[in-house]
Every structure is written in structure tokens, then in C-alpha cells.
Amino acid sequence: MPVVRSLIENERVNAALAWLVACSIVVAAVATVLRGSFLWATLATVIVALALVPPIVRRDALVMAPWEVLTVAAIPIWVRLYGTLPIAGFLTVSAIALLVTVELDAFTPIEMSPRFSVAFVVLATMAVAGLWVIAQWVSDVVLATSFLTTKDELMWDLVYATAFGGLAAVLFVVYFHRHDTASEGRRGRSGDPS
Q1: CA distance 159 to 87
Q2: What is the DSSP string of the chain?
Q3: CB within 8 A of 148, min separation 6: which ones?
Q4: Which of 59, 40, 50 is nearest to 18 (CA)?
Q5: What is the C-alpha separation between 145 and 73, in angstroms, rounded?
Q6: Is the pLDDT of residue 24 over 80?
Q7: What CA–CA distance (Å, rounded) separates 94 from 121?
Q8: What is the pTM of this model?
Q9: Residue 4 banded pLDDT, cuts 50, 70, 90
Q10: What values do phi and psi take at 159, rounded to 5?
């Protein structure tokens, strides 16, 4: 989608904000480890690792995912520092799927149609949710935690994650379509055909 590429037109501002958000996630991950919540620290680390893939691969610190997407991924991590939010895990999982989708679309030759990107975000969310459930199970077995208490709760967790994946996918399409329309309007007024 050329729409994501237009989001990163002002690379310096985007990179500065994205690096700020990424650094705040690192701080949140360290604080989460100090509180003994290793699974949440792992999720925060995954978000930071995904954020660092484009600048490492391109060897350019200005090549970052849109700061808005990183902020969406960071919000549940930050919220978990100050309390509990029952849907934080689902938000984080769908945000990771959204971040992967944006980076694939923006920084690779892959171009996704809006319909495909919706399906991709939902399926990626379901896959990450499955990995999250496995991590919770391993934590319950190895560390004697009690993340998974009943099978019904497990199934509803997967349903909620899928629902949040669908919401993230719709927001992805609406946000980037709106931004693409605004970019085309600016280009049309300036007389620049590119």
C-alpha cells in the first residue's frame, strides 16, 4: 500500500517520535521485569524488537514504523504498569499483529490490498494469541502461575483476541485510507503528481 509509505514522508519527525515511544517501552519492560511479570516483559520486548527491525535492516535510524502504530502497541504495556486492564493482553496481541502488517507493507516489496490487510491482521492476531496462550501455559507449568484457570476462559481469551484483531484491522484500513486521501489532496493542491 503506498498509503503507509506516505505516512512516513516526514521521516525525521516520525523517527524521533517512534524512537521515543520505543525507549519508553524499554523502560516499561524493565519496570515490568522488576515487578516479576516476565510474560508482559516478553511482550514489551517483542514490540521493541519489531520496532527495531526496519532501522537495523536498512541501516538507517530514520527508517521507523509510524509512531502512531508504536503508540497503539505501547499503550497496553504502559497501562499494565499502573494497574490491570482485563483486555490489555488482547490489545497488545492485536497491536503486534498490526505492527507486523504495517512493517511488511511499508518496508518490503509486499503491497497489501485493504481486504487482504484486514484478513492478515486478524490471522496474525490469532497466531500471536495462540503463542501467548502457549506462553501462559508454560508459565503455569514451570513457574506455578495461574494464568489459565479454565478451558472456558482460554476459549474466550482466543475469541476476544480475534475480535480485537478484527478491530485493529478495521482501524488500520480506516486510518491509512484517511491518511492516503489527505496526502492525495495535498499533492493535488501543490501540483506535484508524485
Answers
A1: 12
A2: -HHHHHHTSSHHHHHHHHHHHHHHHHHHHHHHHHTT-HHHHHHHHHHHHHHHHHHHHHT-TT----HHHHHHHHHHHHHHHHS--TTHHHHHHHHHHHHHHHHHHHHSS----HHHHHHHHHHHHHHHHHHHHHHHHHHHHHH---S---HHHHHHHHHHHHHHHHHHHHHHHHHHHHHHHHHHHHHHHHT---
A3: 133, 136, 137, 140, 154
A4: 50
A5: 25
A6: yes
A7: 7
A8: 0.73
A9: low
A10: -65, -45
41, 33 contact by CB (below 8 A): yes
Buried b (16+ CB within 10 A) or exposed e, 115-124: eebbebbbeb
Contact 103, 53 (CB under 8 A): yes
| pLDDT tens digits along 146-155 | 877 788 877 8
* 23-to-17, 59, 75, 151 alpha-carbon distances in Å: 10, 18, 13, 37
Query: Could you identify the residue written with the cell 494497574?
Result: 83
- How far apart (Å, rounded) are the C-alpha atoms in residues 31 and 64? 24
Q: What is the pLDDT of residues 86-109, one digit of tens each?
A: 667 778 888 888 888 888 888 888
